[in-house]
Amino acid sequence: MLKNNEFIDKLRSSGLRPTKQRLKLCKVLFNRSTTFHFTINDLKKQISEKLNEKISLATIYNTVHAFKKKGYLKEISINSDKSYFDTNTKIHHHFFDNSTKELIDINDNQVEKIKINTSLPGKKITSVEVLVKVENK
Amino acid sequence: MLKNNEFIDKLRSSGLRPTKQRLKLCKVLFNRSTTFHFTINDLKKQISEKLNEKISLATIYNTVHAFKKKGYLKEISINSDKSYFDTNTKIHHHFFDNSTKELIDINDNQVEKIKINTSLPGKKITSVEVLVKVENK
DNA sequence: AATATAGTTTATAATAATTCTAAAGAAGAA
DNA sequence: TTCTTCTTTAGAATTATTATAAACTATATT
């Protein structure tokens, strides 16, 4: 459980003003024991459920993108009508449950490290993502 | 280069009536030497450019989804505002060029086969996808 | 402490991909 | 031909996301 002051320092040190809204979002996003996989709508719901407050939708979008840019959140590649984000920003891979539309982390020891034996001229690799899709048996 | 009759047979054998629109789409999609990675908009453009004809947008969507369901097309997992499809339905992986927003096949010998040493209770794996994102150097 | 400024938040409108609808049209069977 | 079922279509509806521009606030400056 991080203190408010720690969030304030973290925000300030990355050039983001520690506003009320950002601090509330930090609480909801980062004050948890396990990683959080979410869509904007999931996040919005948790803000009202956990904090019993309201942050405008535009601010939620803005902040999530700001946090992603600063490396505090990661966007996960799924072809869905919605975007998915993850509070675990380390390189790791995912199950995507098509039945529940939920993301689940794959542990490092559960999937072999991927080796790419090629490159593209003039391009640099920015990420390597493995997505294992599952559904109910 | 497949003949029209071959498309007719293929469609009929999978329970799809061989309509003018579907045959035109077959021509654009499958009468090519290399695989085709496309968005609905790309496809629409090629219909007018290659065939100089027009198929309603709803039909393009309907047909692409019907072909996907029958296994003639594959949808690729990218978090983009648009959906991407691929005429190569074999298991293979992709580069996604964030600078040009293009998909490029990764050959089988260019990426190691991924081994998953885990499973989820009550779920079955439906696909394993590797996406390598690249951008201009 | 008051003031200036640059960064933020907000409600709302705009955008864009996709799906829905329901009527008209076409394919295949009888 | 006629009937039934499937398909196409234009346009409306839906939905996630981004843009806009005015009100607000954190912070630095005086």
Characterization of the model:
Two copies of one chain form a homodimer. Chain A has 137 residues and is an alpha+beta fold. Helices cover 33% and strands 23% of the residues of chain A. Chain A contains four helices and six strands; from the N terminus they run ααβααβββββ. Chain A has helices spanning 4-13, 20-30, 40-50, 57-69, and strands spanning 37-38, 74-76, 84-86, 93-97, 102-106, 123-136. The longest helix of chain A is centred in the middle third of the chain and has 13 residues, at 57-69. The model of chain A has no long low-confidence stretch (mean pLDDT 92). At the A-B interface, strand 6 of A face strand 6 of B. Chain A binds a DNA duplex (30 and 30 nucleotides) through helix 2 and helix 4.
Task: Using brief descriptors, characterize the structure shown.
alpha+beta; 4 helices; 2 domains; Arc Repressor Mutant, subunit A; three-stranded mixed β-sheet; 23% strand; homodimer; DNA-binding; 137 residues; globular; three-stranded antiparallel β-sheet; 6 strands
Could you tell me the CATH topology label of the largest domain in chain A.
Arc Repressor Mutant, subunit A
Structural class of chain A: alpha+beta
* Biggest β-sheet: strands ordered side by side in the sheet of chain A: 1-3-2
Low-confidence stretches of chain A: none
Q: What's the architecture of the largest domain in chain A in CATH terms? A: Orthogonal Bundle
Query: Total helix count of chain A?
Result: 4
Task: List the domain count of chain A as a whole number.
Answer: 2
Approximate strand percentage of chain A: 15-25%
C-alpha Rg of chain A, in Å? 17 Å
* Secondary-structure element pattern of chain A, one letter each: HHEHHEEEEE
N→C terminal distance of chain A: 38 Å
Largest sheet of chain A: 3 strands, antiparallel
CATH homolog superfamily of the largest domain in chain A: Winged helix-like DNA-binding domain superfamily/Winged helix DNA-binding domain
